[in-house]
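re: that complex we talked abt at group meeting.

here r the seqs, copy pasted straight from the sheet so there may be weird spacing, ignore it
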Amino acid sequence: AQSVAQPEDQVNVAEGNPLTVKCTYSVSGNPYLFWYVQYPNRGLQFLLKYITGDNLVKGSYGFEAEFNKSQTSFHLKKPSALVSDSALYFCAASDDKIIFGKGTRLHILP
Amino acid sequence: GAVVSQHPSWVICKSGTSVKIECRSLDFQATTMFWYRQFPKQSLMLMATSNEGSKATYEQGVEKDKFLINHASLTLSTLTVTSAHPEDSSFYICSAQSVRGGQQFFGPGTRLTVL
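got the structure back, here u go
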């Protein structure tokens, strides 16, 4: 079955430190890959997507994600975390139908 | 884990007809449900936020008279596409946010094809 996995329920990072939120996928073909962010009581907001080309994708709010085909991963990264980055992050893959990971709660410690 | 269902999973209708899509939280109460639209290989687009017992809040550019949302109970929200046209063909996804913690759970989606 096709799936997207986010192995960490929560990630804690000190403000100013680099952050990584992990995502791996098991989807046939060459899916498009997405990261979304959800703030409390709000709908998802699009951060970035990978289609083809450069494996490092830059997105909103200073986030970037690295596509690794051999590891079927698409980890979200940011060089220096802000307290305001604290939110719920979802990874998704779409070939025809979009499939979501279960989400990772990112907590940035001041 | 929490489960969100959508019914139907797919529907084909004629242009001009109305289609109702149901979103249910099966094992938890959801004060807030979100409705999204997605085209193949495209990003999700948030259409509206639905809070139980109150009117939905629509995103800019989404016609509220065309996409009627009702959230009558803590476990059910419905999206009715009125007078559907071929350009309404899309994949519609709902998500439900539990009362506690704000975790959002996604339904499997409904594929609408308007002929």
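couple things i noticed - The first strand of chain A starts at residue 3 and ends at 5. Chain A touches chain B at residues 32, 34, 36, 38, 40-44, 46, 49, 51, 88, 90, 92, 94-98, 100, 102-103 (CB under 8 Å).
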